[in-house]
Amino acid sequence: MEDVATEYYRELLRRNLLQSDPLSYRNGGFTMHDLLRALAQFIAQGEYFSGEVATLARTSLASQEMKLRHLSISGDFLEISPEIVKEHTSVRTLIILGIPTNTLPEDLFQKLKCLRLLDLSKTNLMVVPESASSLVHLRYLDFSGSMISRLPETIGNLSNLQYLILQACEQLSELPKSIANLYKLRSIDLAGTRVIGIPAGIRQLIYLNRVINFVTNDQRIDGARKCYSSLEDLKPLINLRTITIVNLERAARAQGSILKDKIHIYHLKLSCSSEGWPYQQEDIARIQDVFEERLFPPSSVENFTIEGYFGMEFPTWMKNRDLFLNLTRLDILKCRNCSQLPLLGQLPLLDHLEIHGAWSIKHIGPEFMGSAGREAAFPKLKSLILEDMPEWEEWTWEAKDDARVMPVLESLWIERCPRLKSLPQGLVHHATNLSYIWIEESHSLTVIEGFKSVQKAYLARNNGFERLTDFPSVQVLEIEDCPALLHHVGVLPSLQMLIWRDSSMRFLPEWMLPHPVDPIFPNLQRMSITVGDVLTLKRCLINGPDSAKIQHIPNVYMEVMDRPDFISFTKEPFRFLYKSS
Question: Which UniProt keywords apply (predicted)?
């Protein structure tokens, strides 16, 4: 079913019937063009309604023959009349948006026998009406982001339910035992809940292919008469494609991998919480055995996240190149005890790598690249993120012509690495496709130079950063609280926009003065500067001591943090506006 749906989805993209949504593109969001949506609404009129419940009430009164199949309403329909919904007995899809009340009428769903999809997400709903258990044809049930604290035991009556979405139900801590009766369930999402365990019997749900936040609980709590599913209960679920396993610090030692034979898994996340940090040596030894023996992944994995692992060394299977031939994304998060990264450079399809919270890493060198001979290391890598590594001091990487490394890297993000002294020459030499660089809170870095392909750079809160040179292609430069950078910035011939925020700036740097022969910013079109003092702003007024540093720039905007004072300057036609508080 999912394969067919994916093909339909791709076909919609190929035909441009779906377009990327700028507001949610990073999360894979897409939208439909307004004209196409209007056409679909026109074709479906009489069967489809989306809007305020008051409008629906008027429409229903005006057209007694309306036979709605799909209904999406917003507003407080309880204040008008819940009968407005009840009378549409043929409805297949019901989406209720933003209801302010926390309860629904108990009999709301009794007559909606044809309902296939029910979406009550992002509402204040606290109690699920018992009548919801009578929706025997229901396939999709979404409570995500609601205030519900429990599900009724009768939810097990939804014999055709395939998708149960409980994401971000922050008050939910327990699932009913009858969950095990949902034999056709294909997807369950518990991310962002407080659920402490999955009821016993999940091994019976053999059609499950997506499980988000399977809560590890290998200990059975007999005293409380509660019995939870353990990792062993995942073994029969051979159709899994996406699985997130959390609270692995509770896992017990056992023989045999629970994942290795699941050849359809493409998205895998293994997570330990930090509740017991710092862990005892006994726990460290146990978690190393659990990951090594029980969590050996299949070679089908394309997207892999390991989070909160507190072993002293990464599992040996993470060094197995042949195991990850299909891997495109790897996130290594909060693995605080590991002092050496696994060999990752030879993963042929890896295009995104994030290393976050590697507190024990002090040195990154050839063992990370793994390049042998003329074979390229990280041949497909486009995005590299290195974040929250407080002990990291050195990144060694020689600039050798015979070893191609990161040839297609586009984006480099380094944040909260305060001891890193320099960026390697190998990065400058090999990453010739790099177009975006972000460096933040890396106070030991003093110089960044030689990145000839970078077009956009963001530099923030780097206290030791003194010099920026040899960036011939940079078009957008954003600098925030880098006080030492006032001393030297080299010629930036392609720069078109400069954004500078510095609360400690008391005057504009001397290198901003126009040079008649060799200007530092020959193509600069816009400059935005935010300072922390009104006196700094006033230095740039006409005939002020810093006025000559901005008057050669076509468009300038200066402001003071947390104050209404600003300067707006346009060179041609000349316009100078100053506002003071």
Answer: Repeat
How far, in Å, CA of 377 to CA of 381, rounded? 9
Number of domains in the chain: 2
Strand-strand pairing, 30-31 and 19-20: antiparallel
Q: Give the predicted TM-score (pTM) of the model.
A: 0.89
| Assigned domain for 38 exists | yes
The answer to whether 297 and 323 have CB atoms below 8 angstroms apart is yes
Q: Is the dihedral of CA 501, 503, 504, 505 positive or negative?
A: positive
Q: What is the pLDDT of residues 448-468, one digit of tens each?
A: 999 999 999 999 999 998 888
The DSSP result for 461-488, as a single string, is S-TT--EEE--TT--EEEEES-GGGGSE
User: Which range among 400-404, 484-488, 552-556 has the greatest average pLDDT?
Assistant: 552-556
Q: Is the pLDDT of residue 82 over 60?
A: yes
Helix (H, G, I), strand (E, B) or coil at 295: coil
Distances (CA, A) of 35 to 10, 18, 40, 47, 477: 20, 12, 9, 19, 37
- By C-alpha distance, which of 263, 259, 165, 181 is closest to 213? 165
**Average pLDDT of 364-391?**
86
Buried b (16+ CB within 10 A) or exposed e, 135-150: beebbbbbbbbbebee
Q: Report the alpha-carbon distance of residue 560 to residue 92 in Å, rounded.
A: 55
Domain membership flag for residue 556: yes
Domain contains 70: no
436 with 456: CB under 8 angstroms? yes
Model pLDDT for residues 187-206, shown as the tens digit of each residue: 999 999 999 999 999 999 99
- Element of type H or E holding 42: helix 34-43
Q: Does some domain include residue 1?
A: yes
**Could you list the residue range(s) of the whole structural domain that residue 10 is in?**
1-43
Supply 90's token pair: 């043929």
pLDDT at 225: 39
Q: Does a cis peptide bond (omega within 30 degrees of 0) precede residue 278?
A: yes
